[in-house]
Amino acid sequence: ALGGHQDWPEQWPDAAPKPAYDAIIVGGGGHGLGAAYYLAKKYGITNVAVLEKGWIGGGNTGRNTTIIRSNYLYDESAHLYDHAVKLWDGLSQELNYNVMYSKRGVMMLAHNVHDVQSLQRHINANRLNGVDNEWLTPQQAKDYCPPLNISPDARHPVLGAALQRRGGTARHDSVAWGYARAAAALGVDIIQNCAVTAIRRGADGAVEGVETTRGPIATKRIGVSAAGNTSVVMQMAGLDFPLESYPLQALVSEPVKPTFPCVVMSNTVHAYMSQSDKGELVIGAGTDQYVSYSQRGALHIIEHTLAAICEIFPIYRRMRMLRTWGGIVDVTPDRSPILGKTPVKGLYVNCGWGTGGFKATPGAGDLLAYTMAKDEPHPINAPFNLDRFRNGRLIDEAAAAAVAH
Ligand code: FAD
Ligand code: PYC
């Protein structure tokens, strides 16, 4: 069927590593590719390589359920995630690549009194920060999402919902490809099948380069954006990071005509769902309960999620599931990311986005680029430093992370 697609032009060159760069990004996910793009575009640092051990977008960027929202509780988080949502708005134009950002609304369901109080607290906090979020009655929630079962007798009764209308979804592959093409056009080398195996440091402790499966590369600036593998990469520089890596799963149904108009998350029952443009129901679960680098999760986790989906949306009970997969998410103790400098000169990190970093992709790329270009964090990412795990200024977003872990 793809026989007619033979002579499509290459979107960006498949670069081979040079001996040295002004900056190296470890990890060719959306965040790393975004950082490379903004380094080149905003700061004129174009002699940059993105080193990806597999294929770009093959990590969590290509495995996630693409939910975008900024309804986090604390001021610091509202600023961080809303910075990203604002960038999503113009991203297709910025990259001249359709990332298919669809503001179809993200609705979070309340099933008990605790949920009602917690979601209403989030709504109030969000609105104080200029982030849209509103309370819906059960009937209003059903009007917004007709497949929703709001019967009071339901196993998971709906007592109301929080709706962020600017929330939605985007097309994950396009985000990776759009940033890669735009970065390469500015001179960035996108190097796939190139795993970083060591970080070289000089006598003064500062970074001097990396060892890779394709040979050594010199640089004085390294940005690590390796999601679930961050602890492994940071140990190459002798740093222990406060991260645990867990499998997180998603699955899709067979494709059907459009029936599901928005994104619904049910944090209490660990299920969330949207419908892709292909027609598949895109469904996600909670993390496995044990740490692992396996990129696949346990069957009982998705069984639990599907049981809940069938109760909340009974019209889908007879749908067949098409495929499942897993990614590795890097979870911090306070469920907020770490984005900034490290104790090693020239080494910067963007990690700890856990189950929720896709929504942050443009913002994380932008802020990592700023931090690397200026050798200091931007005011938006300054609170998300590594020191908070020593000084106690944690930003606890466990509730807003909204995915069981
Ligand atoms: P990645 O895309 O994982 O990129 C990191 C890259 O680093 C990988 O490609 C990896 O191969 C590479 N790498 C690692 N080690 C090395 C090395 N030594 N050398 C070279 N390269 C290396 N977030 C949301 O906001 N909304 C959601 O709906 C959502 N759903 C999710 C559902 C699932 C099933 C999963 C797994 C995650 C979900 N997330 C979601 C989280 C989100 O996917 C991640 O937080 C985000 O994609 C991280 O982006 P990234 O670019 O940092 O990571
Ligand atoms: O962070 O919104 C999120 C999310 C949804 C599913 C997985 N993560």
Walk me through what this model shows.
The protein has 405 residues and is of the alpha/beta class. It has helices spanning 30-43, 75-95, 113-128, 138-144, 172-185, 230-235, 299-312, 361-374, 388-391, 398-401; strands at residues 23-26, 48-51, 67-68, 106-110, 134-136, 160-164, 168-169, 189-191, 196-201, 207-212, 217-218, 222-224, 244-255, 263-266, 271-275, 280-287, 321-331, 338-341, 347-351. The strands form four sheets. An eight-stranded mixed β-sheet has the order 5-6-4-14-15-16-13-17. It has a six-stranded mixed β-sheet with strand order 8-2-1-12-19-18. Helix 1 (30-43) runs parallel beside helix 5, helix 1 (30-43) packs across helix 8 and helix 2 (75-95) crosses helix 8 (361-374). Bound molecules: flavin-adenine dinucleotide and pyrrole-2-carboxylate. The site of flavin-adenine dinucleotide (FAD) has 39 residues, from helix 1, strand 13 and strand 17. Residues 65, 67, 69, 272, 284, 355-356, 402-403 line the site of pyrrole-2-carboxylate.
